[in-house]
Structure formats: structure tokens, C-alpha cells
Automatic annotation (TrEMBL):
Molecular function in Gene Ontology: GMP synthase (glutamine-hydrolyzing) activity
Enzyme class name: ligase
Subunit-structure text: Homodimer.
From-to range in the entire protein, with total length: 193 to 510 of 510
Designated name of the protein: GMP synthase [glutamine-hydrolyzing]
Length: 318
């Protein structure tokens, strides 16, 4: 019988006591965990909390600006850093999934370290680690907030990693985090967002990454996700997204033969991401979505739906 109100009161008092007048830096991801952690810390220490939200160029369409605006509306002291080019440079020519993850993790650490460096007298690093992350912190892919942890051993330790850690959510499960977020008045839409992997669209573009491919996938993904919302399906799905496949297929448009990209749509039901079933989305919805994608997104002439469950497939394709 977890009571969000009591938790908020206790943890805010505890953080106040622990942190005192010191400064905390925290990386926001746009996701539920880091956002709730930031709002709690903001309640405890106000403007001594410095948030950094990095655009890695691999977010969903318009996500950087809209989430940044949302954060500012919540009174958070947040700096948006557009580092897209740095991530594209780091990814150039890489097509191995793990090499891509590593490049993204390293670029993130560099960007975050540069930014944290510009702040003086910071004592703490805030993190949105939740209980399952604590248990799983040794897993290969890592949980949504595990990006920093899984790259601990890469190169010398960046300055921000020498900071002391504060993790207000480390004893909570995801549903408890959502309830705490609701108590704090965080927008239900933000709290209900599907999980999104740290490496973002980079692991949904099979093979090497270019800004052009990202732009195509952002359009496809936006049509799919907005469609799910419009048809009242978004909240029935645990996670959904589109995958840009590294193959071209023949199509026909007017009297012209086309030879263009294939995208796969994926929507799964799950409770924790460890196992997952593909969702039986209505045929009508799939038909409308496929038509809209093919008509509107230049460079795509075929849409397929992924009907694999986990295991043996995974949720992501990379
Ligand atoms: P898989 O593909 O392993 O995904 O079935 C399970 C859950 O984890 C997410 N995922 C990641 N999250 N960094 C992350 O932060 C990653 O490298 C990563 N890989 C997979 C995936 O989106 C799903 O929610």
C-alpha cells in the first residue's frame, strides 16, 4: 500500500537534508523517470537543480522542442543542448548495433560532461534510476536510464561521474513512479508516454545512420503514433514504433516503377519489456496508417507489420 503523497513528503525532506545548499546536475531524457526525479529534486532544492536535456538528433519528430517547452512550463531550470551533429558524426559509417550504442553512449557522456563542466561547484549528479534498474544494472542492453551506467568503463572517468549520486526513485517500481508523477501534477500525457530507448531512432534504423534516414523515420513514426492516439489505441499499447529497413522494394506509382524503402511497424503489449506480445491492431487502422505513410512519406513505398513476440524476437530490431 504505497501512498504517493507520503512518499513525496518523505523523499523531499530527505533530499533537502542530504543536499542542503549544494548544487545538483541532472540529465533529462523526456521520459517518465528522469522527469519525476527532476520535479522531486526541484521541490527539494529549487534553483540549485540544473537540468540538461540533450537533443541527440535521434528523438521523435518535434520532440526536442515540445518536451523542452513542457519542462520550462513545469518551472524546471533546464538547458536544452542541440548536439545532433555531434551524434551524427559519431555514428557515421557505423552499422553494427552495439557499435552504434557505444558511439551514442560516448557522445552523450562527452556532451553532458561539457555542459556539467560549465556549472561551478556542483556536488551531486541526479539520476532517475528506478528499482528495476538497480537490479538490472548489470544487464547487457541496460534499462532506459542505464546509458550512463553501462558505459562506466569507457575511457577515463568524466568529471561529472566523480559527483555524488542522488536517486530519489531508486526504491520505486514504474507504476509507483507514475503515481508519484500524478501527485506532483505532471501532465498525464507525459506520464503515459511509451518507453523509448536511450539510443532512440538509431536502433530503429537498421544499418548506418544518416540525417536523411532519421527524417524519413521521424515522419513514419509520427503518422503511426498520432494514428494510435487518434484511434484511442495508444494507451492500450505498451510500446510502439516504426523501423526503417535496409532494403528497397519495387513498387508502382502512376505509370512509374519505384524502388524505395520498406518500413516495419511494431506495437507490443508487455508489463516490463522482458516478454512481449505483438498487438492485434485493427486491420482498418493498419490499412489507414499504411496508406497515409506511403502517400505522405517520400522514399517509402511499402509498409509491413511485425507479428513476432518476445521471446524469441526482441522488441527492438537491433
Ligand atoms: P528489447 O529490444 O531488448 O527491448 O526487447 C526491451 C526494452 O528495452 C528498450 N531498449 C533499450 N533501452 N537503451 C535503452 O535505454 C538500449 O540500448 C535499449 N535497447 C532496447 C526497448 O525499447 C524496450 O523497451
Amino acid at each position: 500500500n504505497f501512498t504517493p503523497n507520503a512518499f513525496v513528503e518523505e523523499i523531499v525532506a530527505e533530499m533537502k537534508e542530504k543536499i542542503g545548499n549544494d548544487k545538483v546536475v541532472l540529465g533529462l531524457s523526456g521520459g517518465v523517470d528522469s522527469t519525476v526525479a527532476a520535479v522531486l529534486l526541484n521541490k527539494a532544492i529549487g534553483s540549485n537543480l540544473y537540468c540538461i536535456f540533450v537533443n541527440n538528433g535521434l528523438l521523435r519528430k518535434n520532440e526536442f522542442q515540445s518536451v523542452l517547452d513542457q519542462y520550462k512550463g513545469m518551472g524546471l531550470n533546464v538547458k536544452g543542448v542541440d548536439a545532433s551533429q555531434r551524434f551524427y558524426d559519431a555514428l557515421a559509417g557505423l552499422d553494427d548495433p552495439e557499435a552504434k550504442r557505444k558511439a551514442i553512449g560516448n557522445a552523450f557522456i562527452e556532451v553532458f560532461d561539457d555542459e556539467a563542466h560549465q556549472l561551478t561547484d556542483v556536488k551531486y549528479l541526479g539520476q532517475g534510476t528506478i528499482y528495476p534498474d538497480v537490479i538490472e544494472s548489470v544487464s547487457a542492453t541496460g534499462g532506459p536510464s542505464a546509458t550512463i551506467k553501462s558505459h562506466h568503463n569507457v575511457g577515463g572517468l568524466p568529471d561529472f561521474m566523480k559527483l555524488k549520486i542522488v536517486e530519489p526513485l531508486r526504491m520505486l517500481f514504474k507504476d509507483e513512479v507514475r503515481r508519484v508523477g500524478a501527485t506532483l501534477g505532471i501532465d498525464p500525457e507525459l506520464l503515459g508516454r511509451h518507453p523509448f530507448p536511450g539510443p532512440g531512432l538509431a536502433i530503429r534504423i537498421l544499418g548506418d545512420i544518416t540525417p536523411e534516414k532519421v527524417a524519413i523515420l521521424q515522419e513514419v513514426d509520427a503518422i503511426f503514433i498520432n494514428g494510435l492516439k487518434e484511434h484511442g489505441l495508444y494507451d492500450k499499447v505498451w510500446q510502439a514504433g516504426a523501423i526503417l529497413l535496409p532494403v528497397n522494394s519495387v513498387g508502382v506509382m502512376g505509370d512509374e516503377r519505384t524502388y524505395e524503402k520498406v518500413v516495419a511497424l511494431r506495437a507490443v503489449e508487455s508489463t516490463d519489456g522482458m516478454t512481449a506480445d505483438w498487438v492485434h491492431l485493427p486491420y482498418e487502422f493498419l490499412m489507414k496508417t499504411s496508406n497515409e505513410i506511403i502517400n505522405k512519406v517520400k522514399g517509402v513505398n511499402r509498409v509491413v507489420y511485425d507479428i513476432s513476440s518476445k521471446p524469441p524476437a526482441t522488441i527492438e530490431w537491433e
